[in-house]
Amino acid sequence: MGFDVLAELEAHGTKRYTPEDAYAWCRSFTKARASNFYYAFSILPRRKRNAIYAAYAFSGYVDDIADELTERSRQEEEIARARERLDACYEGVRQGPLFIALGDAVDRFGTPREHFEELVNGVEMDFTISRYETWADLQQYCSRVASMVGHICVSIFGAKPHPRAAEFAASMGLGLQIVNIMRDVKEDAGRGRVYFPTDELEAHGLTPDDILACRYDHRFVSLMAAQGQRAHHYFRLGRGLLPLLDVRSRMCVNVLQGVYFELLRRIEARGYDVLNERVGLGGLEKLAAIARLWAGAAMLGPARSG
Length: 306
Prior knowledge:
Elements: H1 3-10, H2 19-33, H3 35-41, H4 46-68, H5 72-90, H6 97-109, H7 113-128, H8 135-157, H9 165-183, H10 185-190, H11 198-203, H12 208-212, H13 218-238, H14 247-269, H15 283-298
Helix pairs in contact: 2-3, 2-4, 2-6, 3-14, 4-5, 4-6, 4-7, 4-8, 5-6, 5-7, 7-8, 8-9, 9-13, 9-14, 13-14, 14-15
């Protein structure tokens, strides 16, 4: 379901959508694009599940502007339109299934507008930035496109008060995004993008051109191992979020982090060779992992302060 289909569905046409119809559209969109997320969310109560599907559909909508369009002028035009639609949504003007569903979700759960605005800002970075000098530079991007999703989810899930709750949610998003970067090196290189910090490439004897050429050697292995260590660090921090959630929300988040953690383990097990074959979980493997992760999350104890 690419950008053209989504843009058509979001056009100000004559078809009227009830909130239920709009949520059904977002649910189908999520299932078609990201089965990991779709099945992880399925454990949630209906109202939370619908809201999460709407938030994911918005994320997919703006992602497609960066990934499906190639002309800079068209990207800028469409991202401006996305911002206008988001603003209108928060002001109560909702047209098309995505924004009818998102507006209803925002009304129910009060997700701050700035979370979605920062997500759009992160996507816009892909229009103009294809290299990052340092981890601090890349972290800003990851925080916008991934940590903001974590904050959006927590606004819908609800969480027990904790001084580090926001840090835990942000860290979970960072861990997932680092695994995405590790898994998608080849696909990103095909778009001319290198998501490894330049100073870290240099530390391992590499250049951006080596990544664009998809050169697999001991230098690449060393670089990827360092990224894996960073992902492990953020996953450890992110798991602090789990005890702060109710059981069903916790089960949902545990599936998300658990599936991506398993992807990281598989990347490590194949010596970080993500260039010759895409790393993933098969259908039955995914279902087994989801059941295991649901059960594991249900056994967690209550949150501790400090």
